[in-house]
Amino acid sequence: MKIDDGVTWQLYPLCTQGIQLYIEGPYNLNTGLMSTDLNDAGLLPLTQPFGTNSNAE
Predict the structure, then answer these.
(1) In sequence order, which ranges of the chain are alpha helices (DSSP H)?
(2) What whole-number distance in Å separates Cα of residue 29 and Cα of residue 40?
(3) With the CA atoms of 46, 51, 55 and 57 taken in that order, what torsion angle do they form, in degrees rounded to the nearest 10?
(4) How confident is the model at residue 2 (pLDDT cuts 50, 70, 90)?
(5) What is the reported pTM?
(6) How far apart are alpha carbons 57 and 31 in whole angstroms?
(7) Which residues partner with 34 through β-bridges?
(8) What is residue 37's DSSP assignment?
(9) How far apart, in whole angstroms, are the C-alpha atoms of residue 57 and residue 52?
(10) Residue 43: which of 22, 27, 23, 26 has the closest Cα?
(11) In this predicted structure, what is the pLDDT of residue 7?
(12) What are the angstrom distances between the C-alpha of 25 and each of 13, 32, 35, 37, 53?
């Protein structure tokens, strides 16, 4: 890894672990895509529900 201080750092992991992630959602295994049923039914809002500034400063 090269950092702009002119020093080259070599990073080694302290440990490695095989990780599996199980998520739930409208994923279609046959198509490999997420379902758009909620959007198709018009159930998703078209405007920002939390005000006009979506970025916290």
Answers:
(1) 37-40
(2) 19
(3) 180
(4) very low
(5) 0.38
(6) 39
(7) 27
(8) H
(9) 13
(10) 26
(11) 66
(12) 32, 12, 9, 12, 28
pLDDT digits (tens, 9 = 90+) for 14-48: 777 788 877 777 888 888 888 888 889 998 888 87
User: For the chain, what's the residue count?
Assistant: 57
What's the half-sphere exposure (Cβ side, CA atoms, 13 Å) at 16? 3
Higher confidence at residue 37 or residue 3? 37
Give the integer Cα–Cα distance in Å for 42 and 35: 14
Give me the residue label for tokens 């020093």: 7
Average pLDDT over residues 47-57: 67
